[in-house]
Amino acid sequence: MSSDTDKKITVTSPLLPDLDEFTALLREIWGSKWITNNGSFHGRLEKELCEYLKVPYISLFTNGTLPLITSLQALRITGEVITTPYSFVATTHSLWWNGIKPVFVDIDPVTGNIDPDRIEAAITPRTTAIMPVHVYGQPCDTERIQRIADTYGLKVIYDAAHAFGVEVNGKSLLNAGDVSTLSFHATKVYNTIEGGALVMHDEEMKRRIDYLKNFGFKNEVEVMAPGINSKMDEVRAAYGLLNLRQVDKAIAARKRTAGIYRVALQDVEGVRCIQDSPGVRHNYSYFPIFIDAEKYGMNRDELYIKMKESNVLGRRYFYPLISEFTTYRGLPSAKPSNLPNAHKLANSVICLPMYHNLTDRDMDRVVECIIKK
Ligand code: T4K
After folding, report:
1. Which of 6, 26, 73, 77 has its CA 20 to 30 A from that of 287?
2. Strands (E), 40-178
3. Tens of pLDDT, residues 105-157
4. pLDDT digits (tens, 9 = 90+) for 264-316
């Protein structure tokens, strides 16, 4: 006989639209026979996302990696870009695909975001931009980063893959910097199965990006630049419209889970939970905890394995650090001595299961694994 502890609790589970509602939209698409290339659902989703996210312009993409790659092209970024090693590899791969050298800067030990205090020392005559990541949806210090960028004439491209719907004092975090990118992957707070977007501030940039994501075509006969194909199709756009209607409810459920985890773990020595910041509307996209092995009496990997044995599948986002992967390891800025805080977080983090329909029993099982040593 199987017990409920046989059920695997995964780190996340996708927010899915109602199948009947989705089927009705699929019928519309079938009827129109317009299935991609800037169709009506694509247009509607861009409009509704601008309203929901409180941003002036958005361009939809097939995933969250291509807006990074494309924005670097659009902003003509070359040479060196200052970035964080504490992220998903896509951040730095986007630089590599553009022939740009990533320069890693250490992170803030609490938020996990790039430490603005360390940016200036990493600037060289070849530096053209800064690419910070709002890791776990925690806002970077955008004001300080902008001041540094303005002083040195640098562009700022935010990898906001985790920051869907995050607001600071009622304003969208996505309006910071020159552009921000989003991921709508199945594992994100808001998903279109695969998908992503670029948020920009002016119409000219929107036009340029829309050309670039469609091979550079301006019209039937003119190609403005060597673009790429990264257009979102109508099926995903329709799915995205339906998910947008339920994302607030999903974020509210995630917030409740974060509250339950925090209360349950507050007295566990050696376990630090991610906290909310004043004035921020968080999206609870991830729920990382950080293990101090000495105080907790067990190291992160031991806990990770123990959780796995109990079918609680947390994930070590972001371990290993990007700077530890073969592609990047040889860079001077990738030396561990340059990135002590990043190494410390990467070696202590476990992201706990966090999604909209996690049950109270699931949460109890997660917490029990951590409390009972
Ligand atoms: N920048 C940052 C900062 C990012 O975090 C990411 C992506 C990007 C850029 C690039 O965006 P995209 O090009 O991916 O849109 C996942 C995601 O694939 C990736 O999107 C995400 N970051 C990264 C942090 O995590 P995996 O390999 O860990 O996911 P996977 O397949 O192991 O799934 C994790 C769990 O989610 C599964 O155990 C169960 C659940 N799951 C997953 C999928 C795919 C489902 O229940 N259903 C599903 O369909 O990379």
Report:
1. 6
2. 57-61, 80-83, 101-104, 127-131, 155-159, 167-168, 171-172
3. 999 999 999 999 999 999 999 999 999 999 999 999 999 999 999 999 999 99
4. 999 999 999 999 999 999 999 999 999 999 999 999 999 999 999 999 999 99
Distance CA 91, CA 131 (A): 8
CA-nearest residue for atom 16, ligand 1, is: 187
- pLDDT band at residue 2 using 50, 70 and 90 as cut-offs: low
196-206 as b/e, with b when 16 or more CB fall inside 10 Å? bbbbbeeeebb
Distance 107 CA to ligand 1 centre (A): 22
Ligand 1 site, residue 133, Cβ cutoff 6 A: yes
> Going by DSSP bridges, is the β-strand pair 101-104/80-83 parallel, antiparallel, or unpaired?
parallel
What percentage of the chain has pLDDT greater than the value 90?
A: 98
Where does residue 104 rank: exposed (0-12), middle (13-18), buried (19+ CB within 10 A)?
A: buried
Looking at residue 136, what DSSP letter applies?
G
CA pair distance 162, 113, nearest whole angstrom: 12
Distance CA 300, CA 293 (A): 7
Cα angle for residues 256, 258, 261 (degrees, 5° grid): 110
Mean pLDDT over 257-269 rounds to 98
Q: Provide the pairing of β-strand 271-273 with 179-183.
A: unpaired
Report the alpha-carbon distance of residue 127 to residue 5 in Å, rounded.
52
